[in-house]
Amino acid sequence: MCRQARGKRPEEGKHTLLTNRKVRILGAIVGVVLLALAGLALAGLALDKNREPSRGDVRVSIEQLEHRQVRVVYRTKKAIRWLNFGALAGQYREVGWRFEGGGFRIVATDNGDSIERIDGRKFNEVSLIASPHLVRLKKEYQPLSEYGEGGVMIYTGHFSPMTENGGRANVTFDFTPRERGEVVAFGDHAARLENWRSPTAHPAFVYMGSLEPVETSDVMAVVDPTAPPWIIDEFDRLTPLAFSHLATVFGFSLETKPNLFLTVSGYDQEGRLSYSGDALPGQFQITLEGASWLESSKKAVDIFRLSTIHEAVHLWQARAHPRADEEAPWIHEGAADAIAAQAMLTLGLWNAQDYETNLDAAHDECAIELKKGSLAGAQQRGDYRALYACGQVISQALAGAQRESTASFWRAFIIQVSDGEGYTADDLYDFVAIRAGDQEFSRQLRYFVETPHARPEVEIDKLFDLSAASRDNAPLAPAKAR
Question: What mean pLDDT do residues 373-383 have?
């Protein structure tokens, strides 16, 4: 899964990191310049993308402690009344953050959480102890999690304060692992990292612990040594194979050598075979849970291969990111499933029957999920499987309309939208109309996504009929096309 970590603009009147300073243009050029300079001087903790100071306006120090906990210290250049953070499910900060020395509290707002002093006074520094969430958050990055024996994985996005505009504040991080541990973040691995920023200018995963990273020509990887040997062998063999294939089908290589993290746990959970993955620009992590991973069964191997390629696809898709305020996850999740399935066939990891079985399962699951409501409303309902299955169905239809692979369609889509501020579902519909030269197909696609269907299987068939008609420029065929 690929979740874009971008902030929402707070409502007026809510707590903000900065004081909003409105400046009137007085007409004189000198006056405008002076006012602009004054505005920059008073900007507090706002991120100015045109400058790269040696230190951030907020400095975040994260120190690894025992019991999977970390000490987090926030230091700001200017005294402030609030530190604002984006929304996070499960009341994680209220439950999982404990302030050292007292005097502070977490205040929930409509747009997230704020740290403030109980007495309302300004502050420059606050220290807290953060603990992992007891339950894995659904469709959300874990802020802090156990990673291998004695190690932790941190997602910096949930520890980064927000500006008044809903963006990330100008932050630098210091990371200090426990004794004899290392910090691993992209190409960096050291006993300590100071004044660190992500090379992708995006929230990132950072590992602290005793596991030694392994660097290859493709990746910087941190792999749990307690993983069964067959998983390590698969990981080592699959990574260069998949990366080479994806670079070919997308037409470009990754700009930054990515981080890959893999950990395994829950060997005491008989019959469980759980794969969870998270992708960020230049990184993805895999968490395997359950005793069923101990043996190399066909089901376990297929899940590991398909899901790992799915997460790798997100590294290429990151060139074109969805707009945070209008995210339609079925677009990138479904395409990643479709591209991964095609890769399994092309690389000889599946035969034709395996591939067809996967496609049929996506069609059937999509029809079942859409009986709960529209695809457009699936994420809000918590019907996450609809995003994957129906997204894969749509990706097949889009590619079929052009007699091309889903990867080829996405390559063209990336070129179209990668220079903008993020794409929306409307951008995809417009692109389909232009690429297919068929407004009716585009209209049917929008209808399929946005409308609840009493008989979803009929609507799926209709979508593929229109795909075939668009492809062949001929009257609609009565049979279902797959």
Answer: 93
